[in-house]
């Protein structure tokens, strides 16, 4: 219901359920949505939504160091590489509604 507030901590459970459903999808757009639930990328800084650990784009080839017992320790070791693979998949499949040729044309402008 609009305006209804969830009990403290219950939003994480809901987000985890949504993330789980998206992570199991074969649709590249769903996979990007899953990635964006787990990460925040701003000004060249990638931050885990669970533990708030961060990494710069310059460290993208290195394993991501999560804090403490973050579940991401087991799941997401190279998030920049995951994102790059997802975006490449979107560009080659046209799943974003843009053909691969359109991507190349837009990049050349």
What's a concise summary of this model?
The protein has 109 residues and is mostly helical. The chain has helices at residues 10-23, 28-38, 72-75, 79-93, 100-108, and strands at 39-42, 45-48, 54-56.
Structural commentary:
With 109 residues, this protein is mainly alpha-helical. The protein has one domain (12-98). It contains five helices and three strands. The protein has a three-stranded antiparallel beta sheet. β2 and β3 form a beta hairpin. α1 packs antiparallel against α2 (28-38) and α2 (28-38) runs antiparallel to α4.
Counting DSSP H or I runs of 4 or more residues, the number of helices is 5
Question: What is the overall pLDDT average?
Answer: 77
Q: Characterize the overall form.
A: globular
- What can be said about the biggest beta sheet? 3 strands, antiparallel
Widest sheet, order of strands = 1-2-3
Give the count of structural domains.
1
What is the CA–CA distance across the termini? 45 Å
Task: Report Rg.
Answer: 16 Å
Q: Helix share of residues?
A: 40-55%
* Uncertain residue segments: 1-11
The strand count comes to: 3
Q: List the helices and strands in order.
A: HHEEEHHH
Q: Work out the strand percent.
A: 5-15%
Query: What class do helices, strands and sheet pairing give?
Result: mainly alpha
Any descriptors?
109 residues, mainly alpha, 5 helices, 49% helix, disordered N terminus
Explain the layout of strands and helices:
Elements: H1 10-23, H2 28-38, E1 39-42, E2 45-48, E3 54-56, H3 72-75, H4 79-93, H5 100-108
Antiparallel strand pairs: 1-2, 2-3
Helix pairs in contact: 1-2, 2-4
